[in-house]
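QUALITY CONTROL LOG
STEP: pairwise intake check
CHECKER ROLE: data steward
CRITERIA: each record must contain a sequence immediately followed by its structure tokens, with no blank fields

ENTRY 1 OF 2
RESULT FIELD BELOW
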Amino acid sequence: MRRHEIRNARCAELIPRFVPGGRVLDVGAGYGGLSHRLLQLGYDVTAVDIDPSLCEHADVEVRRCDIMQGLPFADETFDVLTLTEVIEHMEDPFRCVRECNRVLKPGGIFVLTTPNYGQIEERLGYLIGGTLPGALKCRLRSPRAGRAHDHVMPMTIMRLHYLLNDSGFRMEHLSTVIPKPKSVIWAPFVGLLWIVAHVFCSRERRERYHLGDQMRIILGGRGLVTVSRKVLGPNDPEPE
């Protein structure tokens, strides 16, 4: 199964646990696989993408939309919004996620997937090469070239938590997909890291740096899947 279909299957499995039905906006629908699965589950799905011609499913109608130019929908329209393998391509991820927040209803669910740059092999690649192996790849192209960027904004788990919290979301689920079986050989090293973190870092420091989540994903798969709930709208006051 292609990697994006594995991610789509996980998202389609998770969404009914949080929202059993309702309106879904699939942003960056791509090949249309996730929209297709959600339509089969009975959701009312609207799909948008910067290149609608990519869609491979006859039952999915994809509207052309560039999220960085704004989503053409009213505030608080959707119960669920999905953003799969998009955020790492955005020059301004904060603007992107805040726009997603705007069109979600209060308490709505935001499903976001992105490559797992906290995985042990990615970390070792950064240690040795000074860059995340999956990001950039020294192939940056001009935004005027008519093609999508590479991964210009790789998301670590720390950055992802900050992005979601700052944009009015609270993460309620985190998991990985697309396993990397060979990573198990690094388990003893990861165990040593866990011991060091708990011996030398206070509980407050571990929580501040989300070390629990860091350890959960370090031996995980290639992709992260997060489910977050909208707790603040763009015009809501900050809680005291």
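ENTRY 2 OF 2
RESULT FIELD BELOW
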Amino acid sequence: MRFAICCSLAVTFALGARAQGTQYVALEWAPSVTARRGAEVAVPLRFAIRSGHHINSNRPAEDYLIPTAMLWTPGALATKAVSFPKAEAVKYDFSEKPMLVYSGVILVTTKFAVAADAAPGPTRVSGKLRYQACNDKACFPPKTLEVSVPVNIQ
């Protein structure tokens, strides 16, 4: 069965290559953040997943599935932890058992440590949401969504 799934995914990736520029997730909301030097700050981001699609959770049910990840560029703010919502367990026709996925709107929160010697004033924290989108019939090649959040360091 795994062979059949792998073959199906390979065909899906080949067909999905035509939609390389397509994003299935959009940053719907990001706050303006005020952070104190030497402290921690939580930054919530709200992402909207295209209707009719889902993305794998950050901890998919199967090893061969690509997890959703939020990766930040090191700088004045250092990543301490990234929190994802609870995944939905959904059974699709192409899967033997339920998959752990996100759909609709999700909130991803990152806790940052602000360097004690960070320069005060406006800056940005930049990162990437890495995900693999699927619909109820097929999965598409993994995508990366660039994210940038304004931060005022005090």
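INTAKE CHECK: passed for both entries
DESCRIPTIVE NOTE, ENTRY 2: Confidence is low (pLDDT under 50) at residues 1-19.
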